[in-house]
């Protein structure tokens, strides 16, 4: 649901460039940064790079906003938001890869153990 | 004709040069194209990338190199990268899910390998085994028994690689450490299909296990095959999980305990 919401908002933002301060866009960027951090963007080098860009953009937009450069701030915020979204996706990919590797290692251990189970039964004969 | 063609390519080259797309737009197109061919249906990030790319193309067509065009290309590139990342995430997640299912299946098999109860053996298996034990010269008092279960996919007698690996291990252990042994393999099916089909399928399954053991070095005369069709279910055929448990070959091994 969230990506579509973002899309509609960003299209709206382009459609009506005006003297309106980009308050909604600012909130949206903060939210996207929050999601990226929650997804563990700090734990992955690629994700971290895009997260840093997004945070830089947010700070730059705050300065532009203070100067009344609303249109410029709006563009900077939009770029910051797509960077934060990308950071989130990269973080999710890294986490999924980690989980998949863990499961695969577990399966390998199980297979080794399975091979040993038979040997163990052979070593400890059951009483008939 | 030739001249006109030449002239038009020169004109085209000039136009292309004046309006060449930014590196971001070129990357966005390339990354989007690849993500599109690999995406699962309903990947929303792909639609966002598509819209962003369309916006970038429009801005580029209107005013190449303008701030707006460069901005839109930046957005399009990030959106395309995100779509590609999500596609890769979903692919890895599918592999992960497959690994987990495999783990569940194999763990169930291993549990049954370890959990041996000689008293569970059915009457006809016990009889067969006793005959076979005498034939290979196993004294009753000193034999130990192992039991293993192999599960099959519906309608087939195919052994997958992990099962082959386990059968290979079983065969090697028996040959190296208990050269005197007797094996009975019992094939079963679930309740689907006709009686005749199931009798044949259960025999094919048991024979597949025997063939694998023999291929791994076990002597053919020490393996006996029983086909039970769908006569001896161990779970309800009403559920998919029950049917999966019923599609099995039980391997009962008696070996001389040294």
Could you give the order of strands across the largest sheet of chain B?
A: 1-4-2-3
State the largest interface. Answer: A-B, 41 and 52 residues
Shape of chain A: rod-shaped
> What characterizes the major β-sheet of chain A?
none
- Compute the average pLDDT of chain A: 82
Q: What would you call the structural class of chain A?
A: mainly alpha
Assign an overall shape of chain B. elongated
Q: Report the mean per-residue pLDDT of chain B as an integer.
A: 83
What string, H for helix and E for strand, traces the elements of chain B in order?
A: HHHHHEHEHEHE
DSSP summary, beta strand count of chain B: 4
Oligomer: heterodimer
Helix content of chain B: 55-70%
Distance between the termini of chain B: 95 Å
Number of helices of chain A: 4
Unreliable spans of chain A are 9-17, 117-128
Textual characterization of the structure:
The complex is a heterodimer of chains A (128) and B (258). With 128 residues, chain A is mostly helical. Chain A contains four helices and no strands. The longest helix of chain A has 54 residues, at 70-123. Residues 9-17 and 117-128 of chain A have low confidence and may be disordered. Chain B is α+β, with helices and mostly antiparallel strands and 258 residues long. Chain B has eight helices and four strands, in the order H-H-H-H-H-E-H-E-H-E-H-E. Chain B has helices at residues 2-18, 23-38, 44-62, 67-114, 123-135, 161-177, 195-215, 240-246; strands spanning 143-151, 181-187, 223-227, 248-256. In chain B, helix 7 links the parallel strand 2 and strand 3 (223-227). In chain B, helix 2 (23-38) packs antiparallel against helix 3, helix 2 (23-38) packs parallel to helix 4 and helix 3 (44-62) runs antiparallel to helix 4. Chain B is elongated and about 90 Å long. Chain B starts with a helix and ends with a strand. Residues 1-17 and 114-120 of chain B have low confidence and may be disordered. At the A-B interface, helix 1 and helix 4 of A face helix 3, helix 4, strand 1 and helix 6 of B.
């Amino acid at each position: 649901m969230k990506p579509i919401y973002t899309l509609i908002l960003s299209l709206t933002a382009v459609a009506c460039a005006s003297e309106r301060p980009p308050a909604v866009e600012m909130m949206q960027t903060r939210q996207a940064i929050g999601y990226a951090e929650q997804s563990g963007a700090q734990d992955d080098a690629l994700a971290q790079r895009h997260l840093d860009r997004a945070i830089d953009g947010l700070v730059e937009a705050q300065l532009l906003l203070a100067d009344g450069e609303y249109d410029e701030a709006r563009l900077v915020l939009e770029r910051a938001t797509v960077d934060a979204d990308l950071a989130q996706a990269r973080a999710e990919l890294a986490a999924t890869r980690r989980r998949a590797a863990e499961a695969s290692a577990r399966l390998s251990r199980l297979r080794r153990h399975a091979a040993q189970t038979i040997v163990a039964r052979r070593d400890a004969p059951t009483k008939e | 004709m030739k001249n006109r063609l030449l002239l038009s390519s020169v004109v085209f080259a000039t136009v292309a040069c004046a309006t060449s797309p930014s590196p971001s737009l070129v990357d966005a197109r390339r990354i989007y194209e690849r993500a599109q061919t690999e995406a699962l249906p309903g990947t929303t990030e792909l639609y966002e990338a598509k819209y962003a790319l369309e916006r970038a193309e429009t801005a580029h067509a209107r005013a190449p190199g303008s701030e707006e065009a460069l901005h839109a290309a930046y957005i399009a590139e990030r959106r395309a990268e995100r779509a590609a990342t999500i596609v890769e995430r979903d692919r890895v997640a599918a592999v992960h899910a497959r690994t987990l299912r495999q783990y569940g299946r194999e763990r169930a098999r291993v549990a049954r390998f370890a959990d041996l109860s000689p008293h569970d053996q059915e009457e006809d298996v016990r009889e067969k085994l006793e005959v076979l034990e005498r034939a290979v010269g196993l004294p009753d008092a000193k034999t130990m028994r192992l039991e293993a279960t192999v599960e099959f996919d519906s309608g087939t007698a195919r052994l997958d690689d992990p099962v082959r690996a386990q059968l290979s291990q079983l065969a090697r252990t028996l040959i190296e450490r208990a050269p005197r042994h007797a094996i009975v393999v019992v094939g079963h099916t679930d309740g689907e299909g006709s009686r005749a089909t199931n009798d044949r399928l259960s025999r094919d399954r048991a024979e597949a296990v025997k063939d694998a053991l023999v291929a791994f070095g076990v002597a053919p005369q020490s393996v006996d095959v029983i086909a039970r069709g769908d006569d001896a279910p161990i779970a309800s055929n009403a559920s998919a999980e029950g049917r999966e448990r019923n599609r099995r070959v039980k391997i009962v091994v008696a070996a001389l305990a040294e």
